[in-house]
Amino acid sequence: MTNSEDQRLQLEPNAQVQNIKVNSIKANPYQPRKTFDEARLEDLAGSIRVHGILQPIVLRKTINGYTIVVGERRFRAAQIAGLEAIPAIIKSLTDEDMMELAIIENLQREDLNAIEEAESYRKLMDDLSLTQQEVAQRLSKSRPYIANMLRLLHLPKDVADLVKAGTISGAHGRTLLTVKDTQKMRDIAKQTVKESWSVRYLEAYVNEQFGNKIKKTNSTEPKMKPKMIQQQERQLKEQYGTNISITTNNKKGQITFEFKSEAEFKRLIHQLNDKYNK
């Protein structure tokens, strides 16, 4: 739990675990997560059938029963497992507490992607009228980190979907945002996926193509190149016995052969001529 969540869920000295009927429990209406991985729920349900629920969920009492504060995934798995009642702790919380805790719990998911994380920060700001600085303080993060994540929400939907699917990373997405032409951004995103570009290579490519001032990293050139190009360089190096560099620029490319003497130059020319004349 984060510090803010832990503070709100500190249990009273006399707090007790109670067995609450599953059919009297409802989902948190402020839960930002609308879909759950069915396969993982089935796995958890199988574990619950064997071992039971090891950690009680947290509920708030309502007029018509109970509302989940923390533990909706355990609750759904318990339903699949066929449990009639589950262990729970009852807490007195405000609607604002419910909103915040639901979002914070969502942020702690293992499978959370960068877009969902950014959406959670935006929801905290919108629902609770918080500034970026206030969100940062509540979640023990820096304000620049929150601001950088929120930038991802400006990506076109099809590019954002690539981040959601894990096809490209959030860092890829932030780099693509420096391309102001939306169609060019989409084209570069597709090329990034097709050629498995690293973030470093994408930064260098965008900086070269559009003159954006992107922070450069202390990495060597081969690490910045797509895997396919690195593989071709290695094969050519083995074939010709010298360092070879392949560079691409706006759908054009260049292959550079390195030689350190006239004799080595003549050897390379001879090899290339033999290859061409075969």
Automatic annotation (TrEMBL):
Keywords: Chromosome partition
Any matching Pfam family: ParB_N
Top-level taxon of the source organism: Bacteria
Family affiliation: Belongs to the ParB family.
Keyword Disulfide bond: no
SUPFAM superfamilies for this protein: KorB DNA-binding domain-like, ParB/Sulfiredoxin
CDD domains, alphabetized: SPO0J_N (cd16393)
InterPro entries membership: Chromosome_partition/occlusion, HTH_ParB/Spo0J, ParB/RepB/Spo0J, ParB/Sulfiredoxin_sf, ParB_N
Start and end residues of each ParB-like N-terminal domain: 18-107
Protein name, per record: Chromosome partitioning protein ParB
